[in-house]
Protein 1
Amino acid sequence: MKVLVLNSSYLPTGVINWKRGLKLLFMDKADIIEPSSYKIRTVNREYIIPNVIKLKTYNNIAYMDYKYCRTNIYKRDRYRCRYCNKSLKTNNSITIDHIIPKSRGGKDTWENTVTSCVECNYKKKDLTPEEAGMKLLPGSLKPTYFINLADINPEWVKYLPVRLAQ
Ligand SMILES: [Zn+2]
C-alpha cells in the first residue's frame, strides 16, 4: 500500500509506504489530503491510512521508496537513450549503461546507470562519456519525480504536472 507525497506546492515529490506515511502524519510533518479506504486498528483507536499527503514545510527532499531496478531506470529516463535521445519504448535495443564502467569500479546506483540504446552502449564500450566523446543528455539521475504515478495508482493522475501526465 503506497502513499503519494506532495510538497507544499501540491506537486508530487515521492511515493512512500503507508507506514512511513502515517509516521509523517503522527510527527505532524504532513497533512492528509486524501484518505484511502483502508484503516488500521490498534487497541485504543483506529487510524485511516492516507492515500495522498502533503508536506507541511517546503521540502525538496524526495521521499522515495522506488526500488532501484532496470524498469525504474527506464521510467526515469522515459524510455529514451540518455546519449542520443532515441525512443526505446517499443524497441528491443534498450540497455542499461554504466556511466563509469563496472570494469572500472562503477557502481549499480541511480547516479551511475542510464538507459542507452545498443548502438550508444557499444560505441561507449568501457570508457567514460568524456573519453568516448559522448554527452549525457540533461535530466535528473536521481529517482525524483519521474515514475509514472498512474502505474502505481490511477487516482494520483490528477496530481501530476501536465507535462508528466501526458
Ligand atoms: Zn543511443
Protein 2
Amino acid sequence: MSAATSRFLITGSMGCIGAWVLRNLLDDGAHIVATDLSIPDDKSTTRPGLLLDNDELARVHWQSLDVTDANAVNSLVSEHKPTHIVHLAGLQIPFCKADPTMGAMVNVVGTVNVFEAARNNNVRGLTYASSVGVLGAPELYPDRALTDADLPMPNNLYGVYKMANENTAKVYWQDWQVGSVGLRPYVVYGAGRDQGMTADLAKACLAVAAGKPFHIRFDGPVTVQHANDVARIFIDSASVEYQGAGVFNLRNDVIEVAEFVALVKELYPDANITFEQNNPLPFPADFDDAGIQGVLQRVAHTPLKKAITSDVEHFTQLLNSGRLTTESLNS
Ligand SMILES: NC(=O)c1ccc[n+]([C@@H]2O[C@H](COP(=O)([O-])OP(=O)(O)OC[C@H]3O[C@@H](n4cnc5c(N)ncnc54)[C@H](O)[C@@H]3O)[C@@H](O)[C@H]2O)c1
C-alpha cells in the first residue's frame, strides 16, 4: 500500500516522537488522524509546532483521545478506519513512579485498548513504543551488544508496563492474528525532546544554538537515536504490516557522552557543554539491531555529526522565530 493511500492514526501526537511522525507522514502525503489527551487550538508552540508550519498544522486532522477510555479508542478507530496505527501515548519513568496506577492505566490499559481497537477494525499495520526500559541493570547482562532475545528484567514500573505491552502484543497475534511491531528506543534526541534526564543531549544542542552553557547529567556509553530516524522507523515498521508480534531493539549510534561533547566542541568551538562524570544511565549501553534490519529494507539513520549540525540550525531558527524559548534548559 502506498503512503499516499494510507490512513495513519497516531496516539501521543503531541509528544516528541509523535511530532516527528507527523512531519514524516506529511512528507509522505499520508492521511493523518493525530490524537493526544488534549489538543490546543493554538498548536504553534507545541512540539508539532516546532516541526510543522501553520498550513501544515491545519492539514492534519486533530482529535483529542484519552487512550485509557476503551470506548473512545474503539469509536475513533471505527469512525476513521485507519489502515495503520502508530501508538506512542505513554507516561515516562518518573510519572509512572509518581503515580503507578495512572502509569498502568495509560501504559498498560491504554495499549490493550489500542490493540483491541486494531483487532475490531482490521487495522493492517500497528507499531507501538516499547523501550530499553524493559531491560535491567547492565551488570545483569553479558558484555556485548544485546540482542532482541536477551531477557527483559525491568527494575522500574515503566519497564514492567512496557514488558506487559510486548507480551500483550504476543497474545494478540497468537489468539487473533493482530500483527504488530514493538520498538525499543533508548536516548532519543532532536527538537521536541525536553523532559527527563535523557533529554540532555537534545538540550545541549539547544544550548549551543542559544549560546548558553549546559551540563549533561550523565556519562558513559549510550545508544542514541535521532527523533526523526525513530519516527521513520515507527512508520516504516507499521507500513510493512508485520505478520507476527515483533519486538526489536533500536541502535543507530553507540557513543560515550564524552565523545558527543567533543564532537559538539569540534563543530562549535565556542560551545560550553560539560557532563557529569561517573554517572552512567542504569541500562545496558549497546544494542544489536539485526532484528529490525531484517524487517525493514533500510533502517533510518542520520549520521551523528549531520544530526547535531541540523539540530543546532533548527533550534537557531526556532529561537529566532519565537516558536521556542530556552526555558527547558532549566528543568
Ligand atoms: N523519548 C525517548 O527517549 C523514548 C525512549 C524509549 C521509549 N519511548 C516511548 O516512546 C513513546 C513516545 O515517546 P515521546 O518521547 O514522544 O514521549 P512524550 O512524553 O514526549 O509523549 C507522550 C505523549 O503521550 C500523551 N499521553 C499521555 N497520557 C495519555 C493518555 N491517557 N491518552 C493519550 N495520550 C496520552 C502525552 O500527552 C504526550 O504527548 C512513549 O511511549 C515512550 O515511553 C521514548
Protein 3
Amino acid sequence: MKSIKNVLVVGGGMMGKNIAFVLTANPALKVVVTDIAETDIRAGIRANCRQLIEHSVITEAELESRLNRIVFTTDMGSAPVRDADLVIEAVYEDMAVKRRTFAALETLCREDAIFCTNTSVMSPSEISAELKCRTRFAGTHFWNPAHLIPLVEVVKSDATSDETAETVMALLVSAGKKPVLCQKDVPGFVANRMQHALWREAISIVENGIADAETVDMAVKYSFGLRLPQLGPLENADMVGTDLTYSIHDYILPFLESSDKPSPILRELRDTGDLGFKTGKGFRSWTPEEMQAVKDDLNTYLINVLYGK
Ligand SMILES: NC(=O)c1ccc[n+]([C@@H]2O[C@H](COP(=O)([O-])OP(=O)(O)OC[C@H]3O[C@@H](n4cnc5c(N)ncnc54)[C@H](O)[C@@H]3O)[C@@H](O)[C@H]2O)c1
C-alpha cells in the first residue's frame, strides 16, 4: 500500500471544500485545493462548519487549526500540485471537463500519483479511458454534506489495481470516513442504486393514488427509516429469516414499480416548472422558512446521530 502525505483536491466548490476539510481530520496530511477561479475556501468551510461549532463537535480553535493546514492555489503548475501523492477531482459533473482535467493533471503530477474522481454518476472507466496509467485511478464518491455523511464509495474502474483501491480506502479511514468498496463500475455504484429504487417506488405510490407525498415520507420516517441506520436491509433479511424474505418477495415483487423510465408525474413537475426547493413547489409546496428548517433540521439530526450532540 502506498503512503499518502500530500493530497490535492481539484475544484474548490461545494464538495471540494468539504472534502478538503474532512481530510484535515488526519493531522499527517497536507491538503492543497486548486480551482480555476479565485475562491475563499476558508469562508466556505467556516460557513459549512457553523453547526459543528454550535453543537460543540469542534471548537473554534480546532477549526482554525484545521483551516490553517489547507493551502489554496489557482496555479496548477505549482509545487503542491507536482508533489501530490493523491488527487481528488471535484470539478463540474461534465465528462469532457473531467477528462480534460485529468489529462492536464497527468502532465503536471508525479508519475506515481493516484487519481480519484468524485463523480456522482459518471463511469470512472470512461473518465480515465485515455489516461496512461489507468491502474492508479478510482472513483471516490463522497456524499453531500461531505463533512457530515461518513460514507465514501470507492469505485474500481475496469482497470483500478487492488493496491490503488486499498490505498484510497486506508486514506479515507485515516480521515474518519466509512469507505465501502464498489467492485464494479456500474451506474449508481452501491448506495444510489438502492436509494433510487426506493424513490422510484415512492413516486409510483403517489402516481397510483395509493398515498400522497407527505404520507409516503411519513411512512418511511416512522418505520423502516428509523431502524436503517442501525440495521441494514440484508442484516434485516437475516434477522427475519431468508425463508420469510423469499416468501415476501415471491408475493410482492410483481406488484412493485419496475419502470425503466422516470415517472410521468416527475416529468410533468419538471415541465411545469415545479422544481421543488428551487421554486417552492414540487411534490409538496414549501415556504422559504420550511425549506430552511428542512436543511437545518437535517444537519442537526446528523450531528446528533453521529456525535451524540
Ligand atoms: N453537489 C452534490 O451534492 C454532490 C454530491 C456528490 C458528488 N458530487 C460531485 O462532485 C463534483 C463537484 O460538485 P460540486 O457540487 O462541488 O460542484 P461546484 O460547481 O460547486 O464546484 C465545482 C468547482 O470546480 C471548479 N472547476 C471547474 N473546472 C475546473 C478545473 N479544470 N480545474 C479546477 N477547478 C475547476 C469550479 O470553479 C467550481 O469551483 C461533481 O462531479 C459532482 O457531481 C456532488
